[in-house]
Amino acid sequence: MPQLPSSLTIKKNVSHQVLLQLVKFWLAMAEENNSQLITEYTLFKLANIDYKVNSNKQLETESFFLLIESKFNAFLRLEQIERYHKYQVTITFDPATIIQELEQVGYQNKWKNSVIKYVKKGFLNKLNPGNDNSLRFIVKIVKLLINERDRAKYNNILYPDPSMDKLLHYQVEQERIFEQIKIQISQNLNLSEIIQTAINNSCNFLDLDRLVIYQLDVPLKSDLISESVHTIDTVTYEAKKENVASTLYFQEDRRWHNFSQCKSKYRQGFSLVIDDVEQNLDLNPCLKLLMQKFQVKAGAVVPIDVRGKLWGFIIAHQCFETRHWHHQDIKFLRQMAEYIAIAVYHHQSYKQLQQQTLIPHQFIKTLANTAQLFL
Fold it and tell me: Exposed, middle or buried by CB within 10 Å (0-12, 13-18, 19+), for 41?
């Protein structure tokens, strides 16, 4: 039987009814297969911490359920979204990701340091290190997450079809895109080719209307006489659908200067995510006008940081309808930004190395020309 990639993580907002179905499924699987079920209560016991909990209220107060089978792990994290009267569930199978999720739960719930320390150092060896994630288990989860009504009205879910081909498509295609860019970087291909290929693939993968690279401090021209170099901020790369207007080589003018003034928070890792431009009351008025100019209904802006310097942004646009951006969408864009940053750094290092190797040759040529004057 084929195996599911161990790094697969599913996040979805669900109703209280679906949440209870998922929890009951975890409990039923643990009872049926005589597996180990870890909750906050049992984790505290394993860490030798006295923790009192009302067993009748346990299902309502637990923030996670971890099923440890003989061949795989299944982690379910629950977070209440009070504003929308819903819950966000996170489902993952990879041991390292499970530890990270448990750490987040610990900091969020203010666990004692001894418990968090136990999670980091003593709990990993209790998880199954294998990659068998049980496809049957996944199919049942997907059926719980996506009923017939959801399938008809929810167009942006990453796994809209419970068939395994559709379920695996996102993970497999993502890995293929990242593998391609890693190969291109290792082969020292042209930087423009690497970036253009990356955003073309990303635009298609995320089904975006437009995906651009907005680059900062782009030299206007090389001036050998003057030491001062004029730079601009502009769109240097673009991937888009045929019926979408181009923004290539767009330069920020004075009306949009507030965008550049926000650079400091992007340097700290901030990403801008907008589901609906018209309904976003916190959006800067100038930035809103700019998005309206390019017919943007929803957008996401992720910084590209090259060794501590803000090099530019990767910007995703939906131009014809709003979009609910999922955690996986933004995570993918951030990973793509990291790969582009690596490609840029390699390119910069290679150019610097070329300049260093050219200096001796120029020096020798100058000496030869000087010597001819005395012959």
Answer: middle
SS3 at position 121 = helix
| Bridge partners, 240 (sequence order) | 210
Q: Which residue type sits at 31?
A: E
Model confidence pLDDT, tens digit, residues 159-179:
334 344 444 566 667 878 888
CA distance 18 to 22: 6
Q: Report the SS3 class of residue 124.
A: helix
The answer to whether the beta carbons of residues 211 and 314 sit under 8 Å apart is yes
Strand partners, 37: 67
Separation CA 262–CA 296 (nearest Å): 20
Decide the pairing of beta strands 36-38 and 64-68. Answer: antiparallel
Distance CA 201, CA 24 (A): 40
Query: Helix axis angle, 327-373 relative to 164-186, nearest 10°?
Result: 10
pLDDT in tens, 202-241: 999 999 999 999 998 888 765 455 555 688 888 999 999 9
pLDDT band (50, 70, 90) for residue 62: confident
Cα torsion at 368, 369, 371, 372 (round to 10°)?
120
Q: Give the type of residue at 41.
A: Y
Angle between helices 164-186 and 135-145 (to 10 degrees): 110
- The alpha carbon of residue 334 and the mean position of all alpha carbons in its chain are separated, in whole angstroms, by 4
Query: In sequence order, what are the beta bridge partners of 75?
Result: 66, 92
Q: Shortest CA distance to 36 belongs to which of 92, 78, 75?
A: 75
What is the rounded distance in angstroms from the CA atom of residue 375 to the CA atom of residue 363? 19
Answer whether 23's CB lies under 8 Å from 144's CB: no
- pLDDT, one tens digit per residue, over 175-191 is 788 888 988 888 877 89
Query: Residue 365: helix, strand or coil by DSSP?
Result: helix
Which among 275, 271, 282 has a CA at the least distance from the CA of 304?
Answer: 271
Strands 9-14 and 231-240, sheet pairing: unpaired
Alpha helices in 206-326 (DSSP H): 257-261, 263-267, 285-293
